[in-house]
Amino acid sequence: MTATTTAIATAETTSTSPTPVPEHHPLLVVGAGLGGLTLARVLALHGVRCTVLDLDPARDARPQGGMLDLHEDAAQRALREAGLYEEFRRLVQPGGEATRVLDRHATVHHADDAEGGRPEVHRAALRDLLLDSLPAGTVRWGAKVTAVTALGDGRHGVALADGTRLTTGLLVGADGAWSRVRPLLSDAVPAYTGISFVEADLTDADRRHPRAAALVGSGLLFALDQGKGFLAHREPGARLHTCVALRCPAGLLDTLDLADPAAARRQVLAHFDGWDADLCSLLADGDGPLVARLIHALPAGHRWERVPGVTLLGDAAHLMSPFAGEGANLAMLDGAELATALLAHPDDPEHALTTYETVLFPRSERSARESAESLELCFGPDAAGRLAAMMGGGWGGRGGVTVRC
C-alpha cells in the first residue's frame, strides 16, 4: 500500500482544542445509495476506507423501493468487482424476468417467461447486502448535508444539519436527483419528463387478490394505452407493486388528496374510464397510502469540466427516466469503476477522476437517450403493440424497455 493510499485509508481525528477544527476525511462520499455503497465496498475490499454520509437516521428509516433487474454488463459486473456476486445470486427472485404487455382492455400483446440474463432482486435486499459487507462505521447515519464549498487546492468543505463541519480531499456526490454536490460541477437541474406516477401496493396478493396476481404473473406487467398505463411488479412475499402512470402537467398530482387514499384512488381512476376492471383493481384495491411521484431527468449527455477534488456518480451524474431500467445498474457500475480508477492511481487522484469520467460520460449519454426513447414508446400511439413488437424482436435482451418504480 502506497503512502497516498494509506492517507486515504486513515482519517485525521477531530481536534480537542477549545476551538475545534473541522473533521478531515480524505475520501468523503455523500449518499448511501447503491452507487455510493458499491464504491465504498470495492475500496474496502482493497483495504481503503472512506466515509459515507447519509441523511437517513438509520439504514431502515424508510422504504428502499422495489424490484431491480440487474444487467450482466453493469450491476452484475459491479457485484463481481465487489466480491458479492455469489451472495447476490441467492437474492434473485424466481420467475422475476417474466414480462407481459397488455392494452387497456387487458388483451395480451406479449408474454415471455424466459430468463434473459437480467435477474430480479429487491432493492432493499441488495442495499442490505452492500451495507453488511462494509467495515463498521463506514456509513454515518443522520448526516444531512446542507452545504458544500470549494476550499481551494482540490479540498472541499461539507456542512451538516447538526452543525458539524467536515473537510475532504476527495468529494464524491452519490446523493441522487437533487444532489447537493452537483452544483460544484454543473448548473444542470432535473426537468419534468411529462410523466407522473401514483404508486400503490397489494399485499398477500395470491390469496387476497388472485385475479390481480394472475394478471401480473411472476414478473413485470406493462398495461399501456392512451398515453397512460399500469406498470406492476411482483415482489417477494406475494406483494404487487404498481405504478399508475399518466402523461400530464406537473401540477396534476398536487390536486390529489393523499391524506385520503380512497378519494385519491377515485381521482386517479377517473383518468382510466373504460379500462379493464382487473387492471383498475391494481389501484382500486390497494392497501395503505399512495405515493405520488413526478419523473424527472437531467439532459441526455450531461457532463462537466474536470474540477479538482470532486466528482459524481449515479443519479447525481445522469438522472434519467426509469424506462430502460438503467438507473441502479449505472450507479453500481459507476461506483465500481470509480473505485477501480482510484485504486489504480493512488498517487494521482485527478488522473483517476479523468479516467473515470472519460468512460462515464458517453456511457450515460447512450443510456439516457435510450431511456427517453423508451418513455416516448410507452406513452405514444399503439404503445402496447409497438412495445410487444420490439420485445418479440429480442432487441436489448428484454426488448430494451423495463421500468423501475
Write the layout of secondary structure elements.
Layout: H1 3-9, E1 23-30, H2 34-45, E2 51-53, E3 67-69, H3 75-81, H4 85-89, E4 99-102, E5 108-112, E6 120-122, H5 123-132, E7 139-140, E8 145-152, E9 155-160, E10 165-173, E11 191-202, H6 205-208, H7 210-216, E12 220-225, E13 228-235, E14 239-247, H8 261-269, H9 277-284, E15 287-297, E16 310-312, H10 315-318, H11 327-344, H12 349-378, H13 383-392, H14 396-399
Parallel strand pairs: 1-2, 1-10, 2-7, 4-12, 10-16
Antiparallel strand pairs: 3-6, 4-5, 8-9, 9-10, 11-14, 11-15, 12-13, 13-14
Helix pairs in contact: 2-5, 2-11, 3-11, 11-12
Keywords:
alpha/beta, FAD/NAD(P)-binding domain, 2 domains, 7-stranded mixed beta sheet
How is this structure best described in words?
This protein has 405 residues and is an alpha/beta fold. The protein has two domains: 3-65 and 125-190 and 299-376, FAD/NAD(P)-binding domain (3-Layer(bba) Sandwich), CATH 3.50.50; 96-116 and 191-298 and 380-399, 3-Layer(bba) Sandwich (FAD/NAD(P)-binding domain), CATH 3.50.50. Helix content is 33%, strand content 25%. It has 14 helices and 16 strands. The protein has helices spanning 3-9, 34-45, 75-81, 85-89, 123-132, 205-208, 210-216, 261-269, 277-284, 315-318, 327-344, 349-378, 383-392, 396-399; strands spanning 23-30, 51-53, 67-69, 99-102, 108-112, 120-122, 139-140, 145-152, 155-160, 165-173, 191-202, 220-225, 228-235, 239-247, 287-297, 310-312. The strands form three sheets. Strands 1, 2, 7, 8, 9, 10 and 16 form a seven-stranded mixed β-sheet that branches. Strands 5-4-12-13-14-11-15 form a seven-stranded mixed β-sheet, sandwiched between helices. The protein has a two-stranded antiparallel sheet with strand order 3-6. A hairpin with a 5-residue loop joins strand 4 and strand 5 (108-112). Helix 3 packs parallel to helix 11. The longest helix is centred in the C-terminal third of the chain and has 30 residues, at 349-378.
